[in-house]
Amino acid sequence: MNRLGRRRFLKGTVATAGVAAAGFPHIWIKDSSFAYAASGKVKVGVLFSLTGTTAIVEESLHKATIMAIEEINDAGGINGMQIEAVVEDPASDPATFAEKARKLVLGDKCVSVFGSYTSASRKAVLPVFEKRKNLYFYPTLYEGRECSKNVVYTGAVPNQQQDDFVPWLVEKFGKRWYLIGSNYIYPKEENNYCKKLLASLGAEVVNEEYVPLGHSEFSSVINKFRSEKPDVIFSTVVGDSVVALHRQYRAAGLDPDTMPMASLTTSENEVAAMGPDAAAGHFTSAPYFMVWDSPENQNFVEAYRKRWGGDKVTHFVSEPSYFQMYLFKQAVEKLAPGDINPANIREAIKGEEMVAPQGRVRIEPENLHTYLWPKIGQCQSDGQFQILKQTSEWLEPLPYKAYPNQVCKESGLKET
Question: How many secondary structure helices (H) and strands (E) does the chain include?
Answer without folding.
Answer: 14, 19
